[in-house]
Specification:
heterodimer, A: Rossmann fold, six-stranded mixed beta sheet, four-stranded antiparallel beta sheet, 8 helices, about 30% strand, B: mainly alpha, MetI-like fold, globular
Chain lengths: ~350, ~280
């Protein structure tokens, strides 16, 4: 177990293109932090830099207090789980699990005991003699996890480990991962492009875009108090509505150099004493999710989505008012995208 | 199966049988001649089958012509060249496919260019070099030039590109050094292509004629093809002796092919390397 510190970490490519810029982040001992961002934001590169697979241009990386900038991957006390598992195709599950200990010259009897213990923990004991090509996606994933666990690393790095699994299996593996983290208590960095995965797994979440950290906070903090327009729009599904244009023309709000946003679940079909402001538009679409409907209204080509309770009185193409409380609006500086408080 | 399917299958097999016969016929004929008595041999074109099979040619080639000696020379050279060449080509091909280094493109181009240089063009400079270091008439004169083969490197480079980079990264994070990664992960994954290159190297070394003829001027050091050619010059009318020598020369290659055909075919049909 170890604390992971990134101090002003930057990475430039040979053509001076910036991949990571001034990354400052501390992952506490035993913490599970998720890193989320759109594809190409640098999140996988960040992980590879921590692992030592890619070199950083400037800054410092410390693992357990030790500066590791110049250490090769094998000396960094990290383990990594890859997106496509990266199991050794020519080795059995047993050999895949044992490889990391074998190259470190751990005694055979100890390797065997640890492999078997880990296999039992991950439900792989019946599969130890199989080759990766004979495993299902979930079994491969568990083998890749086991391979990383066996090393008992200081920091556990996971690069979109669930993205190659189908959706029901993904939910199951997400629960297993979470339980595993609780049981192992290892420092973990979990990279994903899926914001719901990031929020549900991470004790804290790092939102990355264009190689820069946008915000580091608890999942709740990220959702409720986004620091800028990007985070507000990226986290949450359906995404936050930005009330550009003339949605607010008769609300009395200053929409001059400010963008307002509101979460879809904060829009109501009925006014109340506190929800006394509204936006209005033509009802374009109703999508039923059983217990919840998503309705979409449009006005001059701009659209707003609300999550509401099912209501059979709603009719498409009718004018619909969606009510909200003014304090549920988020305000962003139009020029910088920064959140404006109060 | 449809009538068309049957027709396609029949014509495929017919074509394969014709090609197999065309390849096998000269081999069988040579082998057959090796077991013929003198009168049959001198009657113009030799018959396809000996009327009275005999071992006399075989006995002569072993006793009079000391073919075992040349056979051993060839075997030493081929057996030393093959592992060395596979190791060099394996390391170089893998490095060119997966390692990142400054002169990567330049080196790749040089290797590609080396494929285009005919061996005959190298004979003179090679002779100068090996004379200068007094290695003419040594096994090293045949082994060292063959140790780095551009064709083998290019073949392995193409194959090694298919190794997923993540698997190599996983080995590094697991704690394996570059050498350990190469021998524990890369070599097993490239095994089919390495086997194919080994067979090719062995065959090329075994059959090589021009450079061994020039580099091995002492009769004692001659390889089998060179020795067979001189039998032809000395006993030009003794076709049975020639055929016996050729038959003996074929045997190791048949053995190598049969022993490795499983790997060889896998590499030629280029399977995928993903898990």
């Amino acid at each position: 177990m170890a604390r992971l510190e990134l101090q002003r970490v930057s990475k430039l490519l040979a053509n001076r293109q910036v991949v990571l810029q001034d990354i400052d982040c501390t992952v506490n001992d035993g913490e599970l932090i998720s890193v989320v961002g759109p594809s190409g934001c640098g999140k996988s590169t960040l992980l590879r830099c921590v692992a030592g697979l890619d070199k950083i241009t400037s800054g410092d990386i410390r693992i357990g207090g030790q500066r590791v900038n110049d250490l090769p991957p094998q000396q960094r006390n990290v383990a990594m789980v890859f997106q496509n598992h990266a199991l050794y195709p020519h080795m059995t599950v047993y050999q895949n699990l044992a490889f990391g200990l074998r190259v470190r010259r751990v005694a055979r009897a100890i390797v065997d005991a640890r492999v078997r213990r880990t296999a039992v923990r991950l439900g792989l004991e019946a599969l130890l003699g199989r080759y990766p090509r004979e495993l299902s996606g979930g079994q491969r994933q568990r083998t890749a996890l086991g391979r990383a666990m066996l090393r008992e690393p200081g920091v556990f790095l996971l690069d979109e480990p669930l993205s190659s699994l189908d959706i029901p299996l993904r939910a199951e593996m997400r629960r297993e991962l979470s339980a595993l983290h609780t049981a192992l208590g290892t420092t973990m960095v979990y990279v994903t492009h899926d914001q719901s995965e990031a929020l549900s797994l991470g004790q804290r979440v790092v939102v990355l875009a264009d190689g820069q950290i946008q915000q580091i906070d608890t999942p709740d903090g990220i959702y409720k108090e986004p620091s800028n327009r990007f985070v507000a729009g990226f986290v949450g599904w359906p995404p936050m509505n930005f009330l550009d244009g003339d949605w607010l023309e008769n609300s009395g709000l200053d929409a001059h150099c400010i963008d307002y946003g509101i979460r879809p679940e904060r829009l109501l079909l009925q006014p109340s004493s506190s929800a006394d402001a509204f936006i209005a538009g033509r009802l374009e679409r109703i999508e039923s999710f059983g217990g919840e409907w998503q309705v979409e209204i449009s006005r001059n080509g701009s659209r707003v989505i609300a999550r509401v309770a099912p209501n059979p009185e709603l009719r498409r193409d009718n004018e619909l008012r969606l009510w909200f409380r003014r304090e549920d609006l988020y305000a962003f500086d139009r020029a910088t995208g920064r959140r404006l408080q109060g | 199966m449809s009538a068309k399917g049957v027709l396609v299958r029949v014509s495929t097999y017919a074509a394969l049988i014709v090609m197999a016969l065309a390849t096998l016929f000269p081999l069988l004929w040579v082998t057959s001649i090796a077991f013929m008595r003198a009168p049959e041999r001198f009657a113009g074109t030799p018959p396809l089958w000996p009327d009275h099979p005999t071992l006399v040619n075989m006995v002569n080639i072993v006793h009079q012509q000391r073919i075992g000696y040349y056979f051993l020379n060839s075997l030493i050279v081929a057996a030393a060249t093959t592992p060395l060449s596979v190791l060099v080509a394996g390391l170089a091909g893998y490095a060119l496919a997966q390692a990142k280094f400054r002169a990567h493109r330049l080196v790749s181009w040089i290797v590609m260019f080396a494929v285009l240089v005919p061996n005959q063009a190298l004979v003179l400079p090679l002779f100068e070099m090996f004379s200068a270091v007094h290695l003419i008439n040594h096994y090293a004169a045949l082994i060292l030039p063959a140790a780095a083969n551009a064709v083998s490197i290019v073949l392995i480079q193409a194959y090694a590109r298919g190794i997923p980079a993540d698997v190599l990264d996983a080995a590094r994070i697991d704690g394996a050094s570059e050498w350990r990664t190469f021998f524990s992960v890369v070599v097993p994954l490239m095994a089919p292509m390495l086997a194919a290159v080994a067979v090719l190297t062995f065959v090329v070394s075994w059959n090589d004629f021009m450079w061994p003829m020039i580099a091995m001027q002492k009769v004692d050091m001659q390889t089998l093809p060179v020795a067979l050619a001189s039998i032809d010059r000395e006993h030009y009318q003794n076709i049975g002796l020639m055929a016996a020598g050729a038959t003996v020369a074929i045997l190791p290659m048949m053995f190598v092919f049969l022993a490795s055909q499983r790997y060889y075919l896998r590499a030629v049909s280029a399977g995928s390397l993903t898990d």
